[in-house]
């Protein structure tokens, strides 16, 4: 017995962990790259194809359960201290995962993780459907692994700033390129993939980055694991609405405050407290999604936003009037909840509205708040500014949205 104890003591003394500083111990331990088959418990991730807005790289752990987004400390703290009355209006928080990105000789990326304890893949979950190809800083592509009925059903109908993530491809408005994913996700993945591959984002534009690179001992990156809000719907229609009249956090520098305030002043955020940040709506007439992005949303007048809301609830044949009553009920219930949240400020958060665009599906509609990277409340951190009362900016936007939906319902 003493021999075993002595052996363990010597092993611990030789451990490299004892030579690390406190700061280094908090840093994710690098996971070596390997071309060997995945070990037991390792799960492949793929791009989340229904992401309509934001700038984070969203990954799908299991199309029937969870999606991941890059971890931000404040957002994690907000989810971990979420008030019970707000929980029905947010995506369920399911912990964190460590994600590693490896590139093969062909430029295809493999994103892997060890799922959290207790994770069980949903019965009937399909294998990975999409993969990312990295063109060494010029652009990225997201390809279908095999031909399916979902191939090329997302149609980019944005007439404003192009969302191509690279100079590789330029499309005319008349052509309206089709994709197997919402085109906005190319914009989101490019910068984050560069970081995961150990590349400086600016260097990805240089000529040196066009040659084949080899990466060893890449670090893992921590992601929040959240409920996948779209998986129960066969053709999820998704609207991302930026809420409130202030679009920066307490820690924002003065330059950020000025630029964001200018965007609010020159958009519907200032006049209505809401701004279209992205959307996809399924058209039964073409069997395709019509997609809009945040640049389109910034250009809208108040009347333009009303027209875009009409478009979001129109399937190409008719306006989905069956959705309005349950939507108004859920929005008004959320309004009652926000009014009870003293000191909470949901700066830069968005509201997701989701329904199934396929005919014959139940007219269920979901309303959830997302993106809490700049949210705050009195118990989060000692150095944050403490507010009193509910979030008036969020409430103003929510009331404007209710008024617009009521107008639409009365017109029909």
From TrEMBL:
Q: Does the keyword tRNA-binding apply?
A: no
- Gene3D superfamilies given in the database record: Inositol polyphosphate kinase (3.30.470.160)
GO cellular component terms, alphabetically, are: cytoplasm; nucleus
Give yes or no: UniProt keyword Kinase.
Answer: yes
Q: What class of enzyme is it?
A: transferase
UniProt keyword terms in alphabetical order: Kinase, Transferase
Per the UniProt entry, what are the Gene Ontology biological process annotations, in alphabetical order?
inositol phosphate biosynthetic process; phosphatidylinositol phosphate biosynthetic process
Q: GO terms for molecular function, please?
A: inositol hexakisphosphate kinase activity
Q: What is its EC number?
A: 2.7.-.-
Which family is annotated?
Answer: Belongs to the inositol phosphokinase (IPK) family.
Descriptive protein name: Kinase
